[in-house]
TrEMBL record, chain A:
Record keywords, A-Z: Cytoplasm, Initiation factor, Protein biosynthesis
Protein name: Eukaryotic translation initiation factor 3 subunit H
Record GO biological process: formation of cytoplasmic translation initiation complex
Listed transmembrane segments: none
Organism: Linum tenue
TrEMBL record, chain B:
Protein's name in the database: Eukaryotic translation initiation factor 3 subunit F
Subunit description: Component of the eukaryotic translation initiation factor 3 (eIF-3) complex.
One Pfam family this sequence matches: MitMem_reg
Family: Belongs to the eIF-3 subunit F family.
PANTHER family with a match to the protein in the record: EUKARYOTIC TRANSLATION INITIATION FACTOR 3 SUBUNIT F, EUKARYOTIC TRANSLATION INITIATION FACTOR 3 SUBUNIT F-RELATED
Annotated SMART domains: JAB_MPN
GO CC list: eukaryotic 43S preinitiation complex; eukaryotic 48S preinitiation complex; eukaryotic translation initiation factor 3 complex, eIF3m
Stated role: Component of the eukaryotic translation initiation factor 3 (eIF-3) complex, which is involved in protein synthesis of a specialized repertoire of mRNAs and, together with other initiation factors, stimulates binding of mRNA and methionyl-tRNAi to the 40S ribosome. The eIF-3 complex specifically targets and initiates translation of a subset of mRNAs involved in cell proliferation.
GO biological process, one term: formation of cytoplasmic translation initiation complex
GO terms for MF: metallopeptidase activity; translation initiation factor activity; translation initiation factor binding
Classification via InterPro entries: eIF3f, EIF3F/CSN6-like_C, JAMM/MPN+_dom, MPN
């Protein structure tokens, strides 16, 4: 009569949805890092993209291989070519037993200014087909300073839902408690290597105690990088102030419209009193055909959020480089004193 | 070796055989190992194409590679040529400057089947380079060797092809950039942040300076024999510090520090501005 508590009917099991474990870590292979670095460096300063292949295992997203995309000219026929190239590459890679699963894409960036609307759109496109996708950003200009500038990003879920409704007004954002920090989520990166390649690297490593990486890190001349960062920062602040002005304009228009509505309403009311005194029908207190009642659209806040993200990124970069420079300056001072 | 009176065993002279050398980028090694790990179960070795370019001084620069499926039995080798061409076209769409420069195979030494494959590649490009990567570590250490083939002919008759080893230069600079610690171990939990990286580099520098100190002390005390070239290097290094009076140096360092402090201050102000702007933008409207 009473079913055993462990056994559930098939229907019940089929009905319970699998809860997706949240993505906690992106595991990249050393091979993928080398490939991305090579591709981005060859074409810098042009920005390039490529596809990531790998496996989605629980809370870890493994990226095991990647291939670059050719640079697209602004040509209509190239659309089909691009898709063909992708299919061809994936087919060929499958024949040599490479994981055939797209898990995202990578792109190079210049000075960390990658938060654009295109990025969000690409994310949404990928998200339709793949449940979990990630975007890896590599900055070759920062890597010339000895910092390995890899970042794994994904859009936060709440932001994605909001984007689908395409409604970025103030109330909606307050409702969801969404601010500019919530758009992108950065996921920590782990690097893994197969045992064979780690054996090779261990055997092939030169015995020098100092590597190129150290040379890059201990360089004193970082001023050009700081100057460019500051320039970009200034440009972004200009953009941000333009967005602010749009808001001010909107608010001014809104308040002006409000006051116009009030005066019109009062006039109507006065008219109505007069008409009541004269015994006529009172006129309606609303008039939708009057242009002053037309609701003004509120400007979308998406752009300002993206710009804010960029600015904070630049600030972080400047902080990082300045911190490094302090250490270098102290080092130089100590060397001289000796 | 028996030779006739008139026919002489001769090596076909290749103009660049004396100066040909090859440079390999670490990405190629990674690719080859990855393909070897993923090979189908019945295959003993992996064969693939090498892409790169020939530098103006004759060195072959090997930059990229891809595996080509093949079937190998005791005396026959079948290579999937269509696949090879398709991959080549795809790769050239991204980077048209990379052309075929040779081929690779895993496993030590050159076998009979390799000569046939080498012929095939010789039809695609003149003087292909054959790279062998010993994944079995038969010599107890990783061995990567490069060969070119030289034709042995007796008069007009082709006898054999001899694989001559050419010097190979492993350009590990890109690997060094990432840092060998990340590439050596099987799992790295976190990419080092800027300051951690600085710390590591400075510790290495400190260790080097300690070593130099110890060496100089030993030489002064007569424990180690002095080496003139090392002494010259050390004096060069010490002399390369610019001669600035302490006051000038202090000024220089302080100026730089103030510049950086200014930038830090600017970025903190910007951050504050951002948070204020955000509060204003999403504040509730009081109508």
């Amino acid at each position: 009569m009473a079913a055993a508590p462990i056994a559930r009917s098939f229907l019940q099991v089929a009905a319970t949805e699998e809860v997706a474990t949240p993505l906690r870590v992106v595991q990249i292979e050393g091979l993928v890092m080398l490939k991305i670095i090579k591709h981005c460096k060859e074409f810098s300063p042009a920005l390039v993209t490529g596809q990531l292949l790998g496996l989605d295992v629980g809370s870890v997203l493994e990226v095991t291989n990647c291939f670059p995309f050719p640079i697209r000219e602004e040509d209509e026929e190239v659309e089909a070519d691009g898709a063909n190239y992708q299919l061809e590459m994936m087919r060929c890679l499958r024949e040599v037993n490479v994981d055939n699963n797209t898990v995202g894409w990578y792109q190079s960036t210049l000075m960390g200014s990658f938060q654009t609307v295109e990025l969000i759109e690409t994310f949404m496109n990928y998200q339709e087909n793949i449940r979990r996708c990630v975007c890896i950003i590599y900055d070759p200009s920062r890597s010339s300073q000895g910092v390995l500038a890899f970042k794994a990003l994904k859009l936060s879920d709440s932001f994605m839902e909001l984007y689908k409704t395409n409604n970025f007004t103030g109330e909606k954002l307050r409702e969801k408690n969404l601010s500019w920090v919530d758009i992108f989520e950065e996921i920590p990166i782990k690097v893994s290597n197969s045992a064979l390649i780690s054996a090779f690297m261990t055997g092939l490593e030169d015995d020098t105690p100092v590597t190129q990486c150290d040379y890059d890190r201990l360089q004193l001349s970082t001023n050009p990088f700081l100057e460019r960062s500051a320039e970009f920062l200034i440009e972004c602040m200009d953009d941000l102030s333009m967005e602010q002005q749009k808001f001010q304009f909107y608010h001014r228009n809104l308040s002006r419209q409000q006051s116009q509505q009030q005066t019109w309403l009062q006039k109507r009311r006065a008219e109505n009193m007069a008409r009541k005194a004269a015994g006529d029908e009172p006129l309606p207190e609303e008039d939708p055909s009057n242009p002053i009642f037309k609701p003004i659209p509120e400007p979308s806040r998406l752009d300002s959020f993206l710009i804010t993200n960029q600015i904070s990124n630049f600030c972080n970069q400047i902080n990082g480089v300045a911190g490094q420079n302090f250490s270098r300056l102290y080092l130089m001072k100590a060397l001289h004193e000796n | 070796m028996a030779t006739g009176e008139q026919t002489v065993l001769q090596f076909a002279p290749t103009a660049s055989s004396t100066t040909l050398s090859a440079k390999v980028h670490p990405l190629v090694v990674f690719n080859i190992c990855d393909c070897y790990v993923r090979r189908p179960d019945q295959a003993e070795r992996v064969i693939g194409t090498l892409l790169g370019s020939v530098l103006p001084d004759g060195t072959v620069d090997i930059r990229n590679s891809y595996a080509v499926p093949h079937n190998e039995s005791s005396d026959q080798v079948a290579l999937d040529i269509d696949y090879h061409h398709n991959m080549l076209l795809s790769h050239q769409k991204v980077n048209p400057k990379e052309v075929i420069v040779g081929w690779y195979s895993t496993g030590l030494g050159v076998s009979g089947g390799s000569a046939l494959i080498h012929d095939f590649y010789a039809r695609e490009v003149s003087n292909p380079v054959h790279l062998t990567v010993d994944t079995g570590f038969r010599m107890g250490a990783p061995a990567i060797k490069a060969y070119v083939s030289v034709n042995l002919s007796l008069g007009d008759i082709q006898l054999a092809a001899q694989f001559q080893e050419i010097p190979l230069d492993l350009r590990m600079i890109e690997a060094e950039r990432i840092g060998f610690d990340i590439l050596k171990t099987t799992m790295v939990d976190k990419l080092p942040s800027d300051l951690e990286g600085m710390e590591a580099s400075m510790q290495r520098l400190l260790a080097l300076i300690d070593d130099v100190y110890k060496y100089v002390d030993d030489v002064v005390q007569g424990v180690t024999a002095p080496d003139n070239s090392v002494g010259r290097f050390i004096s060069e290094v010490v002399a390369s510090l610019p001669k600035l009076s302490p006051a000038v140096l202090d000024n220089l360092v302080n100026d730089n520090m103030q510049d950086h402090l200014l930038l830090l201050y600017l970025s903190s102000i910007t951050r504050t501005q951002l948070s204020i702007a955000e509060k204003l933008n999403t504040a509730a409207q009081i109508i």
